[in-house]
Amino acid sequence: MAKAEKQSETHDEPFEQLMTRLERIVGELEKGELPLERSLEAYEEGIGLVRAAQRRLSQMDKRLEELKADGSTAPLTLDGGSEET
Amino acid sequence: MARPPHRFLSLYSPVTSGQGNERAREGAERREEGPRPQTVSQLMGYVGATVRREYTRVFVEGELSQVKPYGQRVYFRLKDQNAFVSCVIGGPSLARLRFDLEDGLHVEVRGRLNVFRSQVQLEVAHMEPAGLGALALAFEQTKQRLASEGLFDERRKRPLPLLPRRVGIVTSKQGAAVRDMVKVLRQRMPGVSILLSPTRVQGRESAPEIIEALLRLDRSRACDVILLGRGGGSLEDLWAFNDVHLVRAVAGCETPVVAAVGHETDTTLTCLAADVRAATPSHAAERAVPVKAELERRLRREEQQLAHRLRARLDASALRLRQAERRLGDPHALLRPAERRLTRASQSLEDALARRARTDKARLDALHERLTRCSPERTLQERHRRSVALKERLLHASPTSAITGERRRAERLAERMDAAAERLLAAAHKSLGERAAKLHALSPLAVLERGFALVRHDEEERRVVRSAKELSPGDSVRVRFFDGEVRARVRERVDSEPDSDE
């Protein structure tokens, strides 16, 4: 339950915010001023953020779409060999 | 009045000024011949007339400076590196101008020269920006205006997201720009999601269309970053991107905008207003997404860092624990100070007790002594001692003793007396002997023994006859010798001569 919440929490978060949080956590661990229990929590949170960021990287939907005048979107194919790669 | 009075003044006309120095000397020589000098007003009046006559159509190029509007006219200087000329523009000439007069503006000016208040002044009839042309000038001036509104301020520019969930593109569906952008986006971030908002981007009239496509994409909130732009072209081709409305729309976008219009050398106002200005569409795409592989590396590094830091944290904790343990290891070390204090305290306590005990004992002894003095036994003893003493004194004081004493004294005195008597007797004996010897020596008998005889009166109480004159013949005398006496009668007296006798 809590895990699901955490995931949904990170889902809408901008990627750089994930990274910022991750860096802050690493920094806090680096300083070594956290209580031991908090260090473990921070570590778990950091690992969670790493996983979320990795997921974010792998879960891109690879779409190329066109935004129509009415606000709808449609798949787009570029003419002139834009799909060569 | 302003007629040239001397030939030499005309020599100063600008037309012939090339040989001025020589002619001036000539003029000076002539003046010595006696002509009257002019007034300054006459001189300047002549100069003015000459200038007005000679410079009716000047065409000059220079930079505007010290631009000062004054009433219906604008005064300024036209200058180059070495010289300047004061200028004025007003009336229909000013009204015809399509641009604002600004310091530093390079212009071409047509007009005529005048001399006003002893100063040469160029009265401008027509002015155009030099070199750039009207488009460029308009661009510069729009740029200045928008800049003064703060539209290009770096402060209001937003950072791009590190990893956009979707990248929006505003450009033409045809053309190289969109292909370049998609290609670079996918190279860097395979699988990146892209949403194109297509629009014409060619020519001045496309500006409203671009604005619409941009706003549509921005309002959809579908993208985290928008790439706006087109490929290279002429200044006129790119002109839509200098449209004030488009520039304002870009500045007003909620979504961060990366603009790339034309090539590196082209700068549009849209580019200046965008959050990030890229040189080309490809560059814009590079700015929009990170390289996935790098990001993954970075994440792995962060993960390792996390593990490493946690390990370090645990190690540090363990170390501290061991250190704490070690310090706890010698409880005596902790107790030692307390121990010392306790020892000192008990020592002083003992001392105090001992002092107290001594004091108490002294008091007790004193009390005891006082008590002893008060005890009946002691009293009895005391009395006994006193009675003994009294008895002693009494004994001394009794008559018996006095008698004995006196007796003894008497005895002593008697002894002393006997001794004294003996001494006296001895002394007397001695003295007597001595006197007896003396007496014997003095005795007449002793003299008689030596042959002398003592004559005494037979009568007259047998007085020693000391002189012959005492005797007369017939008197009886007694003559005593040492061994007896005889009685004799004086027969005669023979008086002897005392002197002859001797």
Keywords for this structure?
heterodimer; A: 85 residues; mainly alpha; disordered C terminus; B: alpha/beta; five-stranded parallel β-sheet; 51% helix
Q: How many angstroms does the end-to-end distance of chain B come to?
A: 211 Å
Mean pLDDT of chain A: 76
Give the structural class of chain A.
Answer: mainly alpha
Gyration radius of chain A (Cα, Å) is: 19 Å
Largest protein-protein interface: A-B, 44 and 47 residues
Percent of residues in β-strands of chain A: 5-15%
Mean pLDDT of chain B: 83
**In total, how many beta strands of chain B?**
13
Q: What does this protein structure show overall?
A:
The complex is a heterodimer of chains A (85) and B (502). Chain A is mainly α and 85 residues long. Helix content of chain A is 59%, strand content 8%. Chain A has helices spanning 2-11, 15-31, 36-58, and strands at residues 64-67, 73-75. Chain A has a two-stranded antiparallel ribbon. In chain A, a hairpin with a 5-residue loop joins β1 (64-67) and β2. The N and C termini of chain A lie far apart (42 Å). Mean pLDDT of chain A is 76; it is low at 1-8 and 81-85. Chain B is α/β, with parallel strands linked by helices and 502 residues long. Chain B has 16 helices and 13 strands. Chain B has helices at residues 7-10, 20-31, 40-54, 91-96, 134-148, 176-188, 207-220, 244-252, 269-273, 281-288, 292-328, 331-374, 376-397, 399-442, 444-449, 498-501, and strands at residues 58-70, 73-79, 84-90, 106-116, 119-129, 166-171, 193-198, 225-230, 257-261, 276-277, 454-457, 476-481, 484-489. In chain B, β9, α9 and β10 form a beta-alpha-beta unit. β1 (64-67) of chain A pairs parallel with β7 of chain B, so a sheet runs across the interface.
Strand and helix map with partners:
The complex is a heterodimer of chains A (85) and B (502).
Chain A: H1 2-11, H2 15-31, H3 36-58, E1 64-67, E2 73-75
Antiparallel strand pairs in A: 1-2
Chain B: H1 7-10, H2 20-31, H3 40-54, E1 58-70, E2 73-79, E3 84-90, H4 91-96, E4 106-116, E5 119-129, H5 134-148, E6 166-171, H6 176-188, E7 193-198, H7 207-220, E8 225-230, H8 244-252, E9 257-261, H9 269-273, E10 276-277, H10 281-288, H11 292-328, H12 331-374, H13 376-397, H14 399-442, H15 444-449, E11 454-457, E12 476-481, E13 484-489, H16 498-501
Parallel strand pairs in B: 3-5, 6-7, 6-8, 8-9, 9-10
Antiparallel strand pairs in B: 1-2, 1-4, 2-3, 4-5, 11-12, 12-13
